[in-house]
Amino acid sequence: MLNMLPFFFFLLTLLVGNNRICVADKTGFVRTNGTQFVLNGERVYLNGFNAYWMMTTAADTASSGRATVTTALRQASAVGMNVARIWGFNEGDYIPLQISPGNYSEDVFKGLDFVVFEAGRYKIKLIISLVNNFEDYGGKRKYVEWAGLSEPDEFYTNSGVKQFYKNHVKTMLTRKNTITGRIYKDDPTIFSWELINEPRCNDSTGSTILQNWIKEMATYVKSIDSNHLVEIGLEGFYGESKPERTVYNPGGITSLGTDFISNNQIPEIDFATIHIYPDSWLPLQSSSRTEEQDAFVDKWIGAHIEDCDSIIKKPLLITEFGKSSKFPGFSLEKRNKFFKRVYDVIYDSARTGGSCTGGVFWQLTTNRTGLLGDGYEVFMKQGPNTTARLIAEQSSKLRDLKFPPLVTHSAE
Ligand SMILES: *[C@@H]1O[C@H](CO)[C@@H](O)[C@H](O)[C@H]1NC(C)=O
Ligand SMILES: *[C@@H]1O[C@H](CO)[C@@H](O)[C@H](O)[C@H]1NC(C)=O
Ligand SMILES: *[C@@H]1O[C@H](CO)[C@@H](O)[C@H](O)[C@H]1NC(C)=O
Ligand SMILES: *[C@@H]1O[C@H](CO)[C@@H](O)[C@H](O)[C@H]1NC(C)=O
Ligand SMILES: *[C@@H]1O[C@H](CO)[C@@H](O)[C@H](O)[C@H]1NC(C)=O
């Protein structure tokens, strides 16, 4: 589906005949048209996986980490997946990318170069997240420490810390891949940048802290890179801009400083994201009951699709959903039913031209990286009732959708 259709877009270029309209974007960057992703006039649907571990694993040459990355990409491509979401950061103690502000490990960067190169070979596009809200792999806490501060939420407000983050953004976007020779910002293998994995903050001033930070940082990304889409990294909680929507937040979670609607209305944000974790999000009582989980999943996705269709008017991508073997009552069959439920909602939206254009589960694991499993790992085991089979079916259903061509206006 991400393939070039040269003859087709040649014809469209003739038909449209307006050079401000860019039907035939031969550079291969995905754009948006309203609630749809578009490449070369074709709508793009996404079926993919998370694999946060790819950069550090590829950097671990001592234990053939690159072969592990290749295996995962090959297995993903074999079931028709076309997107992966990965970490483009590590300020932690273990195989750090950024050792201290502005001091990068060239070996770890070469690991990321390899992931980008190899994903390109397997026609899998990358959503690259630029920092973590949480402490795993460093995150906002480490940035704040670097500035001599102790309150993690100062990540979003302190000017010195914001400058550290901007420096990281610039370093990533202008990195020259040592294998392909391409600057990251010019590489169509990258689908989008994600500002931060799951931003949250304590905000007693009505969600303005994150709103301001997102606006400032998305604008900064766009000032360097006009090729790629940008998303925030949100889980999808509703906030004060539309209080009647907060009933959809799981188990009485307050907005946690975010606001799905107003955050995604920022013009520099190209598409919206949500995550789905019924096991950990719902109160114990409801989370152990399948019917309540199912009802939550349907309402949670449904509400966000409605908002993206009619208020935000941008595509919606489910960038994390998963079921962990560490929760009571887990079985592979239950996980597969959960995946199928999410996939069906995505497909129903996609086939009717709606805003929900894909899903990216948490998380793909090969046999070897499974040793570091977090309970959510999905192996591409072949067989009639496997998750791999479900994934392959979803890829093929989305690939077979047919719509009239859409144009996209070029970035400038
Ligand atoms: C960068 O980090 C490395 C590894 O800790 C260290 O050896 C090097 O001196 C640092 N460089 C700078 C400029 O801080
Ligand atoms: C958030 O607020 C709570 C309650 O006031 C406090 O306990 C917690 O330390 C705060 N966390 C951050 C990261 O500011
Ligand atoms: C992992 O590899 C071992 C040894 O090659 C094999 O016995 C096992 O079935 C594999 N597990 C999975 C989940 O693929
Ligand atoms: C696969 O699942 C179907 C429906 O749940 C069941 O009837 C069938 O026996 C399963 N097949 C295998 C090989 O487990
Ligand atoms: C989307 O595509 C339609 C049909 O090709 C076109 O008329 C419209 O201008 C496009 N809108 C945007 C925002 O690119």
TrEMBL record:
It is found in: Secreted. Keywords: Glycosidase, Hydrolase, Secreted, Signal. Residues 29-363 form the Glycoside hydrolase family domain. GO terms for molecular function: mannan endo-1,4-beta-mannosidase activity. InterPro entries: GH, Glyco_hydro_5, MAN-like. It catalyses: Random hydrolysis of (1->4)-beta-D-mannosidic linkages in mannans, galactomannans and glucomannans. Its main location: secreted. The keyword Hydrolase applies. Pfam families: GH5_mannosidase. GO terms for biological process: polysaccharide catabolic process. The keyword Hydrolase applies. Its EC number is 3.2.1.78. Residues 1-24 form the signal peptide. Belongs to the glycosyl hydrolase 5 (cellulase A) family. This is mannan endo-1,4-beta-mannosidase. It comes from Microthlaspi erraticum.
